[in-house]
Amino acid sequence: MRLVALDADGGRLDEEETGADGLPALVARWEAEHSPRWVWSDAAAWSPRLLAAGVRVQRCHDLRLVHRILRHSALVHDAQALRAADVWDTPLDPPEPVRDAGATLFDLEATSPRSGAVPSDLEETLAEHARQRTALSRAEDPARLRLLVAAESAGALIAAELQAAGIPWDVTEHDRILTAALGPRPAPGTPPSRMVAAGAEVRAALDDPLVPLDSPPKLLRALHRAGIDVPSTSQWELQQHQHPAIEPLLRYKKMSRLLTANGWTWLDEWVHEGRYRPVYVPGGVVTGRWASSGGGALQIPRQLRPALRADPGWRLISADVSQLEPRVLAAMSGDTAMIAAGAGKDLYSGIVEAGIVQTRQEAKIGVLGALYGGTTGDSGRVVPRLRRNFPAAMALVDGAAATGERGGTVTTWLGRSSPALEESWSQAQRAANQVDAAAGQQEAARRSARERGRFTRNFVVQGTAAEWALSWMAALRLQLARFEEVPETVAAAASGPVFSRRAHLAFFLHDEVIVHAPAEQAEAAATAIREAADAAGRLLFPGSAIDFPLDLKISERSAQK
DNA sequence: GTTCCCCGCGCG
DNA sequence: AAAGCGCGCGGGGAAC
């Protein structure tokens, strides 16, 4: 394969050829000599093989991810050429981890580039890069879009690095939690003892020795037969009722969830040599949030947090942002009252102290209602008060909702736009507005419009929060990469060649990061996390008084909240 | 026998 | 307690 060096205007400066085996060494040399921004087809395809060889790059431009932003962004006016190149519009997940070691027939496929992936040959890579450069240079507000492009690309590197380093995971502690909750690990195919016991209690209370507790339709019929009149078997419906079967059933459901989602089978499949290596999917959510694929990385139950444990002589530094989304909304809208309510403290308490609501819980429900479009219950009662006290913030989300109800497109702070609607949606709306439209048709169209409005209302805030989080992690990653290496004697070998001797990101969850660091670097890592949060705030909202306070802890074990 | 959808629930 | 947004996953069971 060939590497080409380009100048700032896209002109060719230099090029070099190498075989696949020589690639990491050549990349390492160019990285050291030029510190370039690597333009490549897809970090998810290139980065893992470099990391495995002990090579890390500082910056990249991920053509696949950037393409998906630019082709939809309302800030890009001249996108015909980009949209025509639709092989680049690929949502492809990273390759499946090889689960079946016996599948030798497919070994070749597992190590070669992914079938159906974006092009990776030099000419098409250069052509797409040129299209993206053109689109960016002609965009409205190119500076913001360039921040987004850089942040999204940094995210692609971080996702690959998080997977390579892994989360230090204490199998013994995980087993202890499972055993305490479920009973000792049972033989394969048999349920654990405490589930068996809870199941027996439910069946006795229902006076029905054969109820299949794992089949919602059958369980629902059995509940009805016992006189428990619930519309579904969900826990919050069950909690409304008094019956001796309810308590053991809820207990059974909790245990069943833990066992099937994160039980011993999960442990065997996903934790190896003390590391859980989740598959992150940057840009996997329409709003720009990350998704995950396999292992449920973004749904690790809080109950299992104690199983995250630093290697000997290392620490975990976990930090989450307090009320990220409302703060992002306050900053975007420049709502001075809302910014002031959160300044240096808990935003919800600030709303109470400003005399807008009585309790922190009310403040939280009201703010979530504002972000999600809640109209009923407590949230519906509090939102109007927020609308009076935070007019700019509420105007921003109300405006986004109104745009969505009309079928319009909304755009995040840095330029990611909501996906286009199906033509059938607009047709249904038009049809419902004809004089002869049936009442049911009109009601369905109104409901669908309101749903779209709630989606676009939330999109601008959730999407901008995702941009803030990417900027935070990108700044943090570069700072951590400058830390000194610690001696081989305290290396965390399981973190792999790039990360075993230096503080590194180990976990990310929307508004939370965990860094795994040698004990002597823990304080410095904590400082870096705080500085990166401040930097992200200034980068996205220069001149704004908004702050992003962190809840940060240094420990050997990740504490349960 | 395989594929797809729904339910329910974990996370933010 | 959920509600109002965004996800992934396992299990059951219908559809193919």
What does this structure look like?
- Among the domains are: 1-165, no CATH class; 171-269, Taq DNA Polymerase, Chain T, domain 4; 347-460, no CATH class.
- The longest helix is centred in the last third of the chain and has 43 residues, at 439-481.
- It is α+β, with helices and mostly antiparallel strands and 561 residues long.
- Mean pLDDT is 92; it is low at 94-115.
- The protein has a four-stranded antiparallel sheet.
- Helices cover 50% and strands 10% of the residues.
- Strand 1 (2-6) and strand 2 (12-17) form a beta hairpin.
- Helix 18 (377-389) crosses helix 19 and helix 19 crosses helix 21.
- It is built from 22 helices and 13 strands.
- It binds a DNA duplex (12 and 16 nucleotides) through helix 10, helix 12, strand 9, helix 17 and helix 18.
- Keywords: DNA replication, Exonuclease, Hydrolase, Nuclease.
- GO terms for molecular function: DNA binding; DNA-directed DNA polymerase activity; exonuclease activity.
- This is DNA-directed DNA polymerase.
- Its EC number is 2.7.7.7.
- It catalyses: DNA(n) + a 2'-deoxyribonucleoside 5'-triphosphate = DNA(n+1) + diphosphate.
Main sheet summary: 4 strands, antiparallel
- How far apart the termini lie comes to 49 Å
**pLDDT under 50 segments (min length 5)?**
94-115
Report the total helices: 22
Query: How many β-strand stretches?
Result: 13
Helical content, roughly?
Answer: 40-55%
The percentage of residues in β strands lies in 5-15%
Structural class computed from helices and strand pairing: alpha+beta
What overall form do the CA principal axes indicate? Answer: globular
Give the integer mean of the pLDDT values: 92
Strand order of the largest sheet: 11-12-10-13
Cα Rg: 26 Å
